[in-house]
Design brief:
586 residues; 13% strand; 17 strands; 4-stranded antiparallel beta sheet; alpha+beta; globular; Muramoyl-pentapeptide Carboxypeptidase, domain 1; 8-stranded mixed beta barrel
Length: 586
Amino acid sequence: MKQGRLSRVLLVMLASAAFAAALMLGCGSSSAPRASAQTETPAKPAGPPQQLTADGQTQLRAMAQSGTLAELRWPNFSDYTSHVQKFYDLYGYSLPWVRDMQPTPQAQQIIAVLLNAEQKGLSADDYDGPRWQARLAKLKPAATQPSEADAIAFDLALTVCAMRYISDLHIGKVNPEHFDFHLNVESKKYDLPEFLKTNVVDAPDVAAALAQVEPPYPGYQRTIVALHRYLELAKQSDGLQLPALAPKAKPIAPGDNYPELPQLARFLQLVGDLPSTATVSDSTVYAGPLVDAVKNFQTRHGRTPDGKLDAQTLTDLNVPLSRRIRQMQLTLERWRWLPNEYRAAPIVANIPEFRVRAYDENLKVALSMNVVVGKAYGHNTPIFEDSMEYVVFRPYWSVPFSIARAEMLPRLAKDPDYLAKKNFAVVDSKQNVVTAGAVSADVLAQLRAGKLFIRENPGPTNSLGLVKFIFPNSYNIYMHDSPQRQLFSQARRDFSHGCIRLERPADMAVWVLRNNPGNWDLAKVQAAMNGTGISQQVNLTKPIPVFIVYGTAIVPESLQVEFFDDIYGQDAALEKVLVKGYPYPG
């Protein structure tokens, strides 16, 4: 993450005990780093930072200014140069992590945290995991006469790795703007030198000090818990693959013979779809609890839960657990892009899941429903954050020029009455109706030139349905009802031109308007939707934060992880950037 533009901001300390991660890493007592899950005696400051000779200070200044340290796993820390320099300025170019030529207890603790980075969906290698033991061995007590150069290299390496880890854990590695995601991480950024000095260098418990930097969301914390489980499951998995179906072969249906049942049962029991208490027959007939387990597995992977072992289900079953772990790691990265504070309870739509959730003030799910999102390969729903400001009942639909040109004007050229037949009208820039009947050649020419516009009249057949929810944005994306109700029963639901269609729009309206005067209960909402009058706009008393996000691994309260297809290729794009290492795009 580029940190050169990090601004000094007040640290956001909003993660409550229910949300904060319980990092329990003890400090090491020898020269070798320890990764402990036990709480140990709190560390105390061990005297003043290690003072350097004049030559040592000159060396440290030059190294900090250069923005590179060859012995690091990722030597280029130019995106942190100004922060490293400021950090050492705060200590007069002495060594905060070294006292009496040996690592401080806090240094030992933070190294233990770095070694356990995998538990947070990160990689210990990125923070020099394999290199710390050799560095520690060059200092006391392992070395009788440590060199000043070794102490400087150790201290600088730890400073860079600590800054990277804190930033990665707090706001993610890659700035979401790099992917044209309009999620702003600027307000979350720490003044890293001040953060380290105030919260870490002399902290009695470094792990507890770092627990505050993680996202406060229950969903994030559940993903961390599920990640730990899958890391262990990956060690237990035999990695065997179920045979693919022969070309044109029928799916294995309940009641069919399937010789691979023992292997299927082992895997489903491993990942929790088949209860450990389930009784599985020695027969090779695919039936009973195994069918139920496959249905549960299909549901968790966004498939139609018919219990059939078709080509897609077998493909899903054969995805290595290492890949599922990677999906969780990538989703955790995106969790870190979200803000830590809200003006109100948010609405969050997750594109790969085809689902939207409204949360209450305690970040508990208050409402959840299926959605239809933008088509892959051409009409992707963008990733961004905004605020819902008003609701429109019985809306008009102003047809975007791109849709009109591609889909409607060719039909209109063949049939001048096409718009009238479909309940559309032609309007000018002020929304005055030019014609609601036949379209003349002159009007058609103005439509092609973008001087006139097509608008669909309100009603049950309107493309937006009977209500829309507006959060003004540059993409002209919003949530709305839809007359195409059959699409919500599809397993994969990317059918729109980019907007988000709601399965239960009336319920969403009740929730959105719950704080508005006038008692907007379901009956009143349905009356507004089904009335015969003109469009009605209702401004929200309090704007509601809206987040359009992208996560292919979701962990509900059941802790049974749900995995979804990378329909827009965003996981692949993020992986491509991450594999290049530091410095990441900022």
